[in-house]
Design a protein that fits this description.
The complex is a heterodimer of chains A (about 120) and B (about 110).
Chain A (H helix, E strand, L loop, with lengths): L3 E4 L2 E5 L4 E7 L4 E9 L6 E7 L4 E4 L2 E6 L4 E6 L8 E9 L9 E2 L3 E6 L1
Parallel strand pairs in A: 2-11
Antiparallel strand pairs in A: 1-3, 3-8, 4-5, 4-9, 6-7, 7-8, 9-10, 9-11
Chain B lengths: L3 E4 L2 E4 L5 E7 L5 E7 L5 E8 L2 E5 L6 E7 L2 E6 L8 E8 L8 E2 L3 E5 L1
Parallel strand pairs in B: 2-11
Antiparallel strand pairs in B: 1-3, 3-8, 4-5, 4-9, 5-6, 7-8, 9-10, 9-11
The chains are: A mainly beta (about 120), B mainly beta (about 110).
């Protein structure tokens, strides 16, 4: 079982609609939780980074939440645009990795926004 | 442009060959990484260097050998390529420490036939 599980695996929404992606993790203790966006054929780009003590972090139309008690995070996308079509990856930095920068990646949720 | 760059973007080769992928960053970062993204889209860390010193070496076949000539470059050499090595390889860089953002390169799609 992976230490970072994401759902749904894929999602199709209409342009302008909102959506929420889920992430459950078992990595504990952890230092921070990140959400990355990966466009097809490109490298991942960071959207948000939350430390274990933060509950929410926004980046434009993207809002991430974190519940360290239930080990859950979500990424909410508001007023979706065609350019939001991408894979969204939840990433956890284990505290035990200390200063090495090692990250544990989820499998990603593939989002398709249709006109 | 300030960025992480990789060459080549595509690499098609036959089993048994030896190949290298190059990575350069001009962001002034001290730490560089190599990741492998398999067909199931999972990204897994392979190696990490901090200021030319190896700090992460995951369970990777010793056919894979990273080399960091300076802190702005991290190359990946692969000997005796196998079909299972086919994947997308990403280079990334960051400042040292667990809370710094990692910046990824565009990836190198390696296909072994």
């Amino acid at each position: 079982k992976n230490q970072v599980e994401q759902s749904p695996q894929s999602l199709i929404i209409l342009e302008g609609k909102n959506c929420t992606l889920q992430c459950n993790y078992t990595v504990s203790p952890f230092s921070n939780l990140r959400w990355y966006k990966q466009d097809t054929g490109r490298g991942p780009v960071s959207l948000t980074i939350m430390t274990f003590s933060e509950n929410t972090k926004s980046n434009g139309r993207y809002t991430a939440t974190l519940d360290a008690d239930t080990k859950q995070s979500s990424l909410h996308i508001t007023a979706s645009q065609l350019s939001d079509s991408a894979s969204y990856i939840c990433v956890v930095s284990p505290l035990v990795s200390s200063n090495t920068g090692k990250l544990i990646f989820g499998q990603g949720t593939t989002l398709q926004v249709k006109p | 442009d300030t960025a992480v760059s990789q060459t080549p973007k595509y690499l098609v080769t036959q089993m048994g060959n030896d190949k290298s992928i190059k990575c350069e960053q001009n962001l002034g970062h001290d730490t560089m990484y190599w990741y492998k993204q398999d067909s199931k889209k999972f990204l897994k860390i392979m190696f990490s260097y901090n200021n030319k010193e190896l700090i992460i070496n995951e369970t990777v076949p010793n056919r894979f050998s990273p080399k960091s000539p300076d802190k702005a470059h991290l190359n990946l050499h692969i000997n005796s390529l196998e079909l299972g090595d086919s994947a997308v390889y990403f280079c990334a860089s960051s400042f040292p420490g667990r809370n710094y953002e990692q910046y990824f390169g565009p990836g190198t799609r390696l296909t072994v036939t």
